[in-house]
Known about the structure:
mainly alpha; Farnesyl Diphosphate Synthase; Glycosyltransferase; 2 domains; 0% strand; globular
Amino acid sequence: MASIFVSPPIAAASTPPMAAACRRRSKSAPDQQRQNHRHCLRFRSCTKKPYLLPSTSWAISRGVEAAQVQIDEEEEEEERQSKPHSIDMWGNVLLSPDNQVEVYDEELDAMKEEVRAMVVDKAAKPEDKMILIDTLTRLGVAYYFEEEIQDQIGSIFDYYFLPHRHHHHDLDLFTTALHFRLFRLHGFKVPSSVFEKFKNSDGTFKEGLGKDVEGLVSLYEATHVRFRQDHILEDARVFAIRHLKQALQQHGGGGNGGSWHPSLRDKVALALDKPTHRTLPRLETRHYIPIYDKQPSKNELLARFARLDFNSLQNLHKQEINQIIEWWKGLDIASWAKLGYFRDRPVEGYLWGAGNLVSRDSFSRMCGAKGLLLIILMNDTFDNYATADEAKKLHQMMRNPTWDISKLDNDEGLQLPDYMRATLRAIWSTFDDVDRVVKSEHVRRGYDAVEYGREAFRKLSDFYQKRNSWYVGEETPTFLKVTMDGLYDSGNHGTVAAYVMGMENANEDHFKWVMSGPPGLEATGLYTRYMNDFATYTREHRAGEPYTSIDCYMREYQVTKEEAVAKLNWLAEDAWMAMNWEWTCLSSGGVRGVMKPGVNYARNAFVNYHKGADGLSNPEKGLSRDVADLFFQPLPPPPPPPPSHN
């Protein structure tokens, strides 16, 4: 993975004075370890890296030198009561399903068969079939026809790209880019050279293409499935953005010189803000359905089908969120939420951890959402609340080969603080509950699926404890070390493992694939890491953390802040391109189904961070609107279908 860097990493800089001071303090007497750990949390060395679930360093007030801070046990316990994180903005609200939606279920079933007939229609032209597939995907109903769509795309790929076939040479920009994007998203390595025909002899794109707005949107969307070697698509991205922004500024002047139709203007704005491959599929569906309704060429059957299905699936999401809230508020840890040291985010956690909102697979979503919320709890406990000694004890307990809840209450020799017992009980009991469901309600498997999830959490605790060792100066890692460890403590692997626990069709090879740290999941973890580090840089400085990963890079490589920020942006894009490549390298649709929640995790990172805000820690800055659109606000129902004249 060292290839992600333009130049090889250099040796770590000498230990900063504050890190050395932290190292000296970590050897202090036991009665000072708690306060010493707090000192080191406040004055972290440049080896500290931001992580997926960031938090402010709130234990020591600003402006106080570490050497001057003297805290006794009573004062420190008061510090434990501070509230660095805002309370759950949704409170204990329970979502009310729309009973009217159930009326449409029978109609949905009938429409499914009509749409399926459209998908497999042998008389349809390949170009029209690909437009239909893209429309179904963006309307959020393609999940009904996954096998049929994969077969159709495979046949169309053969039609265009089998040896001695050159049908793709005559396709226009819109069609070429659409086919390119869909082929890659379905696992076909179509070459980017298909775009060479749109370039001049000097290597620049033909300026006349700037008038083809539909083609430019299609081209821009296609650039987000590029691989590392697709340099032509980077040129295409710059070209498309320039012309699309110019066209938007002109408030019209579309392809034929006339005024734009509102649907085209909205489509351009949506593509520039949330490209289809970057954003969560369900979120795009929520924004795309109203755009599709405005299109003069819309198919009334598809428009109605999409609205009914969105509201029907939203009803299922509401029921799941209610269960998540009930579970979360019922954990022992709920009584500690008022202290604010961990993020109390059951609804946002559901959005992040659900893995795949575009399906009817509730159990997998519930497993993934619970897994992500427990990761938040474990991360924040290690980072925000546990002292150095307590963190080591928490890590030792997580590393236990058997998670026996009875020992938490009966073994007095453990000497665990109450909050730690509650944390461990929340994690261990949830895995026990999932284990019972897997063994009783789902097909019995010849292996222990839930044990793989437990092992993923044990491994995650290893990285959290390693991070704490950096905070107290026990180790000074290089930027490369920080980055590579960030692959795992971004939370991606743990959430995917939790999601896969609930997949009835997952086999043991799928779990072994996840646990092996495959390149595809590593790429999604890297992307998440870099997006987080970039978006939280300013906030972490204001919170009193003078040494972020950007500062680390600046110090180690002797570059400016602007150069370091540019580097992290470059690394994020490189990780995204690596993810695209690995997606097409997977040998089967089954493995892609396992990787899909990882891809959606990276998409969540884009939605959460791409505008510079941390929506999970501060949902009021943007993520709350997405939550409301997806789960609280149904789409207006379509008008009744016209009466039948038969």
